[in-house]
């Protein structure tokens, strides 16, 4: 049977109530699967995302950090991850604002999450002097220094944050927001004025992913770098400037032309390693984000796969494109 592709105008006219507009995270499954994916990537087991020996050790360290996220999610009491008052959430939703904003005052309990992460990582420091030093430095931060680092991490600022400290602070914040976002009612959360920011927390996406299965079949979702929520965005639309005229896809193999629709049908050959991970570039704003395709690898994880595919960043960076936003588990110094 031949399935007709929809033109862009027809796509916009679809009944979008049938499309899951927002996919909230399932934290326990998310972090366990992510840690396993990071180890597979580190061991070079994922076709389409080659990993060199230099990156392997870092991916294994991040896998241990994600393991700690999963353990803390199981061990801390539910009140640590309590939502804001219902009236505050209602007001935010009424005005199309994020109900769990990353800017503004944070729940003090996030520091309990941070301490618990360090406790779970402590056994790794035995026999690893650099790791022991980093954990010791993190424990030595006073509340003011820690909150300042958290401010910089959430604002994606390289100034004022140590690149070796930032992934651990980011992991605590990510766990805090992911656990809280999972408690929301996805049907009530409203889209923001701009679709390029997370409707739950207002953070930038780390990457996008084409999902398969059920009503999400064939649709593209942006994956939040902070709360792990995913929200729908029409394919072949820049996730930075929302332009559509000059979007293209770059891969480590042959470059592909853009797919001219957002139809919920699979097209072409499945399980193609060259299409697991690609960079979606825009010649209007000269930025890019990576896009991962579940049709070509069922177990794609946008954050883990983005972290492991630095070769694509080098490729598109040399071509003159700037990364639209960062990965919370990888930080560089301002220099």
Automatic annotation (TrEMBL):
The keyword Cytoplasm applies. Residues 197-235 form the FdhE central domain. It is found in: Cytoplasm. GO terms for molecular function: ferric iron binding. Signal peptide: none annotated. Residues 236-330 form the FdhE C-terminal domain. Pfam families: FdhE_C, FdhE_central, FdhE_N. It comes from the Bacteria. Belongs to the FdhE family. This is Protein FdhE homolog.
């Amino acid at each position: 049977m031949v399935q007709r592709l929809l033109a862009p105008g027809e796509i916009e006219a679809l009944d979008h109530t049938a499309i899951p507009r927002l996919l909230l995270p399932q934290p326990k499954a998310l972090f366990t699967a992510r840690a396993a994916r990071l180890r597979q990537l580190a061991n070079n087991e994922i076709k389409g995302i080659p990993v060199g020996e230099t990156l392997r050790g870092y991916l294994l360290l991040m896998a241990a950090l994600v393991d700690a996220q999963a353990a803390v999610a199981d061990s801390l009491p539910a009140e640590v991850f309590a939502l804001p008052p219902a009236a505050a959430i209602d007001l935010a939703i009424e005005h199309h604002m994020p109900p769990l904003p990353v800017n503004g005052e944070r729940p003090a309990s996030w520091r309990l999450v941070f301490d618990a992460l360090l406790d779970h990582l402590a056994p790794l420091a035995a026999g690893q002097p650099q790791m022991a030093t980093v954990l010791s430095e993190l424990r030595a931060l006073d509340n003011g220094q820690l909150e300042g680092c958290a401010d910089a991490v959430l604002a994606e600022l390289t100034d004022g944050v140590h690149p070796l400290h930032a992934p651990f602070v980011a992991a605590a914040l990510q766990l805090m927001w992911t656990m809280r976002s999972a408690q929301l009612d996805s049907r009530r959360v409203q889209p923001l004025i701009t679709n390029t920011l997370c409707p739950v927390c207002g953070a930038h996406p780390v990457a996008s992913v084409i999902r398969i299965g059920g009503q999400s079949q064939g649709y593209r979702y942006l994956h939040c770098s902070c709360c792990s929520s995913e929200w729908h965005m029409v394919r072949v639309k820049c996730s930075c400037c929302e332009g559509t005229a000059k979007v293209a896809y770059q891969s480590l193999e042959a470059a592909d032309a853009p797919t001219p629709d957002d139809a919920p049908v699979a097209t072409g050959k499945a399980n193609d390693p060259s299409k697991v991970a690609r960079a979606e570039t825009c010649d209007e704003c000269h930025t890019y984000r990576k896009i991962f395709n579940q049709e070509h690898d069922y177990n794609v994880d946008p954050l883990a796969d983005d972290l492991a595919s630095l070769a694509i960043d080098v490729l598109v960076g040399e071509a003159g494109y700037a990364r639209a936003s960062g990965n919370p588990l990888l930080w560089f110094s301002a220099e």
